[in-house]
Amino acid sequence: MKSVFPILSLGALLTRCRLSVIALLKGMVTLNLYNTRMHKKSGLIVSILLLAFTPYSTTATERVDVKANVQLKQEFSKQAQLQQTSAIQAGVNQTSANQASEPATRIITLAPHLTEWVYSLGLEAHLIGVSDYSNFPQAAQLLPTVADYQGADLSQIMTLQPTLILAWEGGNKPQDLHRLESLGYDVFRAKITEIEDIGSELIRLGKLTNTEEKANALATAFLNELTVLRAEYATSPYNKVFYYSWSSPLMTIGENAWPNKLLNVCGSQTLFNDSPVDYPQVSVQEVLARQPAALVAASNQPTSNLEQFWAPHRNFLSAPLIAVNPDVTSRFSLRLINELKTLCKGIN
Predict the structure, then answer these.
(1) pLDDT tens digit string along 324-335?
(2) pTM
């Protein structure tokens, strides 16, 4: 490390010596030490020394030396500034290098609704793998499948090298999620128990993926429309509705099943609200005995096909039949709002 103190040149040292000698000699002249006879020789010597030192222009020498010292200080200052500038530039370059070296976000989803969330937030360019039944939007069907009803495909996930895995807490197998986390993967666990959770979990994902502003806007719109629907169709007591997914066997829902939460928004509840299980199997005779206010089929079949099942019983059952899209009603999707509007309008 270089010293910040200026180093005196040989000229500067000689100049200081001359100044000291001349000051001493002038003092001696003042005291008249060399004018006495006793000190004639000494006086001669002093005179010679004065003549020896006097020809040097001490003022000029001092100016030259001071100028040299000033230049030296300026040089040190320039070097210090250059070092500081270099350090700042090095820091900027290092930051840019770190940013450039950071891997791009690579996302995989382990549930269809999470795939929809990625597209809703505009992150589809980072999506590299999806779960089975990720059919919306259609572009998602072109991506590799990394999970199905049997669980997550760990070998496929490791091959794709994701930096973020979106998982469904309560839907994906816990052991799969623990395994992925133990392997060092960043796993975002989305947990949905109420319809309002769709908005709050989407916001949480937005914070994680730097899409918070868009997530907030989408969630706010979703929750506002949900509030309006609840207020519009609030009734007491609830209408009894028979909600079923397929007819052979005839399966319906209990009080705590997800579709019943949708019926509640519409001022209704499942016909089998007293079921001890969430998805009980029932008979047509039980449905006829309870006389629902409406029939809701979660099916992609045409309504005319669905009506064929109930046709033999229409003398005993006048409830209207409403068909809803199971890909929407069974998912925690933002599309749920529009499907709820259709459902509520049909029931009421």
Answers:
(1) 999 999 999 999
(2) 0.70
